[in-house]
Amino acid sequence: MVVDGLAPGRVERPATAEELAEILRAADQAGEAVVPVGGGRALGLGDVPERFDVALETRGLCRVLERSQADLTVSVEAGITIEELNAELAEIGQFLPIDPFNAPGHTIGGVLATGLSGPLRLRYGSPRDFVIGLRVALPDGRLATSGGRVVKNVSGYDLNKLHQGALGALGVIVAASFKVFPRPHHEVTLETRHEDPWAEAARALALAMPPVALEATSDGRVLARLAGTADGVGRIAGELGWTEVGAEAWEEHARRAGEAWARISVPPGRLRSVVDGLPAGATWWASPGVGIAHWTGELEAGAVRAAREAAEDAGGSLVLLSAPPELKREVGAWGTAPATATWMSRLRDAFDPQRTISPGRYVI
Amino acid sequence: MALPRGVIGDLERIVGSRHVIHDPHDLRIFERDGSISGALPDAVVLPADRDEVAGVVRLAARHAIPVVPRGTGTGLSGGAITLRGGIALQLSRMRRIVEIDPVARTAVVEPGVVNADLQQAAARLGLFYAPDPSSQKACTIGGNAAENSGGPHCLYYGVTTNHVIGLEVVFADGSVAWLGGDAPDRVGLDLLGVLVGSEGTLGTITRIKVRLLPVPESIVTLMAAFPTIETASHAVSDVIGHGIVPAALEMMDQVTIGAVEAHYRAGYPTDAGAVLLVEVDGLQESTGELSGAIERILRANEATNLRTAADAAERELLWAGRKGAIGALGRIRPNYYLHDGVVPRTRLPDILRRVGEIGEHYRLPVANVFHAGDGNLHPNILFDLRDEGVLTQVEEAGEEMLRAVVELGGTLSGEHGIGIEKNAFMPWIYGPDDLDAMLRVKHVLDPGGMLNPGKIFPDPEREPRLVARAGFCAEARWW
Questions:
Q1: Which residue of B lies nearest to A293 if distances are taken between CA atoms?
Q2: Quick one: which of A174, B161, B330, B429 has the fewest CB in 10 Å?
């Protein structure tokens, strides 16, 4: 539970949303700094916290609140892991396409708060596209709900969006409702090795039915997942002509991470040029259709600055997902602050005026 | 309110005197939208570009004048109504498709671009824009983004918020910013996600960047008749329960079928209790297999008259009937009123029974034509405004229907917005703490409360009852 070398004064493990909200309120009142912790898979994200008094562990909130097969919706508490939830959904032929790296063990709350995503984003989008409701504990102890449990909803502001990727800046996610997806009728995983993985990836993306996931790696490997009806998948697999491999390739891929690793997010058309600019021999893996690449290894400050400049010039960003505190202090986790940072800070003031939650970690 | 002295002159200096309307007769044109409410603006301003919008907003902020953005006024929840007077920011001059990038599959448009015009431009490049409100021949992309509009094909493809990747926004203080962009995972809070669907209450949208999709290789459209609305509802649940999410899954009841068939001759069986329109798209191989599976499921649910559109023309005819249904309902009564509550789709039989009972209780005909796959209702309450006191009955019936929706675990609006029609009902689905969280966002982004005031949140200054006026006509109404 150590974050950037800082250990908390104490660990709290609430069993209910109400308990969690009360702990948060009491800490806020006492002027203590709280870092929410889910599965602990993304504690390296963000800048070095200014203070760390209370680790607020959410794993005790691990119930499935409602699951409805024909409605294709599920509501869960934030501390359930993606694997636990998907095991439940598998019983009824459904799944939630959230597959962040550094798996397994991410909690739902953690993956929403950090905004991490994985290969399936190519087809399904990020959770932003299929979260239909959130319940959030605010630093003043209130529990606020946005959205609902129906798949289509324009009632009031879509605060679901505001909390995702916000690293708890406005509150701690305690429950979430999702639109879920039926398991594809048929799936195959294909692989190729090529001296120009980007070209092979581009060919796959241009197919009449593009892969649901497509990953290229620095060792020249390209991995594709096709999903659909058996005949359709068969035809596309034939057109692609790669080698079929077992689906466990994805589990292995999802375990990728690093002591130090960075995420590059740019418009898909710019990804190759930014990745090509990384230091020679860099280890990376990329979703060419999404515009995201992860870079790991001995990240050196000068190289990080150069890659970040390239990413930002391309209209994107480079974020440190984990790095030694010294490196974070030197180059910063987030890069150039967004043009609307003033509005964002004012929003934070309205929800967390004392910066109780993870002070110093988020970009605002 | 009356505008402070000199404001008209100032507005004319910003946009040119030809583009400021303040004659009381002319203002009446801008009194209404697609809802049954109305209020007169004090001035209508037609800016040419973002800088003029920003100039008008700054001027309005200085004088504390309400500003209400407006597209083509097709909204059904009163979003474009100048409830407290002030300035209607009519964005119809900003109707350029700025660029379409066929490689990145994105388009940048000004807010006044009509949805169907963007569709046409995209189609020339083998692309399409997924959100397809039934009013798409008239409604604008700016309005769609402000209301987070839906449409039949949102079942599979998602609603507007899933397709808008960037917005240029003029904030309440007149400052301008781009939110979002082509890159995934923008650093910082997702203001883009909050602006979409905020109904003009947090900022004025001056440009929209949207994602386009490649036109699928194959599209199959099926029509099936059912003896009752219940059997059709069960068929809907059964299709989804089998793990099939079609591109669209729409239902029309007998009242609607009769009106539509008389008008469009699309070949809907008028003796059916309900008709489902189902569309699947994708690879040739997939649509064949999926439509076969869907046919079997529909037949197992007592479907008759199964018909597959033989070609694009027949498909368009089937869809013309569906999308033009509301206009066709004018044959039954001249006026209509509808809500668009959403229930979990398994509750469709329950809610449709309740809707029928409520209609009978108030002796008002109700025509259901809706996005069944999403559980997104559209019970059209049909009436004639000339009937004494009918509007109160209509409003009460609508309120009861929405109440039933909420009681079944549903929500107030799936795609039309809250506006001034349902804001009084927001406490049905959100507690004080939930609304307070939303209001914090409102107070940060619009501290003066001048952007589209009186919308979304319960309005202490106004009776919850809808304010109705005579002279309302149902012709050429959309949703």
A1: B184
A2: B330
